[in-house]
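// run 5 | inverse folding | seed 20
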């Protein structure tokens, strides 16, 4: 009886392996009806989306937290003590509007990048000083404001005219 049980178990296991996508030489994929869960930042709980800055050197990709609500925008990156080189936060505005940012309770020095309705950079407030209450204004109505680690904009060539998509 044990022999038959082993043979059946071996036959079932062989059938499963033979039918698997890896055995057929293809990559396993999720069914089209299952939508992927949005990525969420472990500290803020905010949705994380891809963002691309296209400079003369080519595209550079970031993973940015989305501060969409008034409360999320009000908090921003306050009290954050670390952020990866290719991470940041985007503050979307619909409709576009003039805005100004400050560094109240913001520990990290930041580049604050103001993005126009055409998704091109209007101006950059580079190397914003932690805890400084001086308003850093946009040069016109913005559809988004991107915060990156200080110096990152200059390092990558992000300047007025750079295309930013998210």
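// decoded
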């Amino acid at each position: 009886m044990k022999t038959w049980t082993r043979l059946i178990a071996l036959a079932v296991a062989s059938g499963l392996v033979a039918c698997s996508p890896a055995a057929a030489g293809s990559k396993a994929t999720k069914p089209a009806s299952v939508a992927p869960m949005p990525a969420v930042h472990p500290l803020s709980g905010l949705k994380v989306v891809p963002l691309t800055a296209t400079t003369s050197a080519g595209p550079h990709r970031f993973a940015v937290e989305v501060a969409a609500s008034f409360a999320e925008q009000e908090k921003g990156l306050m009290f954050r003590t670390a952020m990866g080189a290719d991470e940041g936060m985007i503050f979307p505005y619909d409709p576009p509007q003039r805005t100004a940012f400050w560094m109240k309770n913001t520990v990290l020095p930041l580049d604050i990048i103001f993005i126009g309705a055409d998704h091109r950079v209007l101006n950059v407030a580079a190397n914003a000083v932690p805890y400084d209450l001086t308003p850093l204004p946009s040069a016109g109505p913005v559809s988004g404001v991107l915060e990156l680690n200080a110096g990152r904009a200059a390092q990558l060539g992000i300047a007025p005219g750079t295309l930013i998509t998210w």
